[in-house]
Amino acid sequence: MRSPLPDYMTEVLEACSDEDDGELAAYIPELAEADPSRLALALATPDGTRYAVGDADVRFTIQSISKPFAYALALVDHGLDAVLEHVGVEPSGEAFNEISLDPSTNRPLNPMINAGAITVHSLLDADRVAAGFAAFAGRDLEVDEQVYASELATADRNHAIAYMLRNHGIIDADPHAVVDGYTRQCSLLVDVGDLAVMAATLANAGTHPVTGEQVVPRWVARQTLAVMTTCGMYDAAGDWFTTVGIPAKSGVSGGLIGALPGKGGFAALSPRLDRHGNSTRGVRIFERLSGDMGMHLM
Ligand code: DON
């Protein structure tokens, strides 16, 4: 029998399609050119079933949705204690690109804000990022060279963060090289189907639902989902968790993932953002899914 899920997912998109609140991310010139009408939704379940509706074939840059996956790779490579020496796990309550560190330790507060993600990236090399993201997605991901160049040309704030991190001994590497690599990581091209499978891998205790590969160990998936829960939606994390109630991560190109432990991964795309940098219609879509499907973890 044909699943009712794709029709239901299309209905959810239609119900949210008229909303046009929010703005494109203007601080990365290339993202300001995106088509704001794009709208897509995908789901991947632990048995490898996948559904995608709307503009599901549109590829866009992963941006901050790369942060939990890079964090997971750093945990695998260095272990929890070593990673915690560089970056904490506390919500910052600040904007994602705030130039701030924990005053008592000089560490970035968490790996989801830019300061923490730049630090995490410094713990990985380019080959590890490429191979690790390919394992999460189940295919090799390409860099969007135009978005990468556009972001790097205007990355003064991230350079300021990286210099501050090196000043405090949190990163060892050359700040320019780290921001360059981090920007390439953020410029990897994905579609909502890729993101749903990546989220499902975390939700599935680190095992990829389609390839069957144990991409990261269970403890790493748990640590990553926990940090997504408390910090993934930045200074809207409390609103998100009370209303939607699942581990999540947003990106400034309008992507948004949610991972339901044991149940699978969802991903939405809609480029207009709210003041926190989270996709406006993406948040609406997840609020609806959570209400209709009883996804809230509480
Ligand atoms: O570093 C930046 O500012 C971007 N590459 C990523 C920021 C981002 O996606 C914030 N999330 N909503």
Shape: globular
Write down how many β-strands occur, each being a DSSP E stretch of 2 or more residues.
7
Mean pLDDT level: 97
CATH architecture: 3-Layer(aba) Sandwich
**Which percent band covers the strand fraction?**
5-15%
> What's the helix-strand series?
HEEEHHHHHHHEHHHEEEH
Query: Under the CATH scheme, which class?
Result: Alpha Beta
What is the fold named in CATH at topology level? Beta-lactamase
Describe this protein's structure.
- A hairpin with a 5-residue loop joins β1 (40-44) and β2.
- 45% of the residues lie in helices and 10% in strands.
- The strands form two sheets. Strands 2-1-7-6-5 form a five-stranded antiparallel beta sheet. The chain has a two-stranded antiparallel sheet with strand order 3-4.
- It is globular and about 60 Å long.
- The mean pLDDT is 97.
- The protein is built from twelve helices and seven strands.
- Bound molecules: 6-diazenyl-5-OXO-L-norleucine.
- 6-diazenyl-5-OXO-L-norleucine is lined by residues 63-64, 96-97, 114, 151, 158, 186, 250-252, 277.
